[in-house]
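User: Please fill in residues for this 63-position structure.
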């Protein structure tokens, strides 16, 4: 039983990393009609927090 706790912790950390670095910026970009791939790459290269803040400040893409 003791050996399963680190495995669960690693799985949770990987899930959180995936969520923060890929899913949040992708969903935000998609909902704002912006390039999903571009914003995910930006979050991977620089920072997901920075990408999220930029998307939040930029808002909807003009038509």
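Assistant: Residues filled in for all 63 positions:
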């Amino acid at each position: 039983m003791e050996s399963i706790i680190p495995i669960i912790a690693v799985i949770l950390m990987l899930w959180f990393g995936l969520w923060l670095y890929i899913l949040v910026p992708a969903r935000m970009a998609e909902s704002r009609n912006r390039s999903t791939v571009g914003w995910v790459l930006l979050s991977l290269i620089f920072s997901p927090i920075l990408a999220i803040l930029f998307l939040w400040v930029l808002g909807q893409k003009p038509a």
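For context: The chain has one domain: 4-58.
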